[in-house]
């Protein structure tokens, strides 16, 4: 089948980010509220990502949270962006997502990545043979597809729930390696350009050039990720973006703390080395008023030929975050409908 549809669909990646002064339960509650409002705003998907040992991210038990989100909504697609498959048994993922698909039929996506989603010490605590499992990533994707198919009904090992659900599988990545794998398997491809922009264009070109049609997908389908912070004015959006910049400072320095409130002057916080690193990671971050966002996103979609665009919005204040998503939906609905 083809996933293509009129216009450019737009979707959300959420990490249940814990902000300074808040709690894990508060972060999860805010994610659920955002999903409810995103559904009304016309967003196509609401994905959550697996991370571990990070004080500022509460999405480690990804499948559990996805059930919490799906229960609160009725039509928006809910999925993983992604599950880090080498951390898990393919059978267990088939059972977990098969359970979700049985409760919420036709609404579950399964995005798969091969990174650990954490530091190496924690990765080893999750699975001591993880490096061997990384090498089996393509093989385990195929095994997972088999567990979710009707063709597995005569196998010795079967996924209940899961078998026959045929949950759409996506490949997530940030390099040409993942692009080639997605193309070889004929699967839709989500590129993590919101924090790893360097290989976006080569990966897109490689994916489209080498794509092989599959049972799931008959033509290439690319969904790049970008950061969006929209507000009434460019100045207000820039101010709000300082929370995101401080959060990404933590990625570079290794100091992962709850996301702090915005500040008036980033130059009082970072040095030139950290500033350069953060700005490199945030190359595909569109910050500003609706007019500014429209111009930047229009150019990005023209540049990439994206079939769908997924956004992450790291904003300290939940009401401002919801507003940013509302403004972005207005841009997409007016410009790309």
UniProtKB/TrEMBL annotation:
Family matches, as NCBIfam families: oxido_grp_1
InterPro entries: Bact_Lucif_Oxidored, CmoO-like, Luciferase-like_dom, Luciferase-like_sf
TM annotation in the entry: none
GO molecular function annotation: oxidoreductase activity, acting on paired donors, with incorporation or reduction of molecular oxygen
GO CC term, one of those recorded: cytosol
Recorded family membership: To bacterial alkanal monooxygenase alpha and beta chains.
PANTHER family noted in UniProt: LUCIFERASE-LIKE MONOOXYGENASE
Record protein name field: Luciferase-like monooxygenase
Pfam assignment, any one: Bac_luciferase
Domain Luciferase-like: 10-241
CDD domains assigned: Flavin_utilizing_monoxygenases
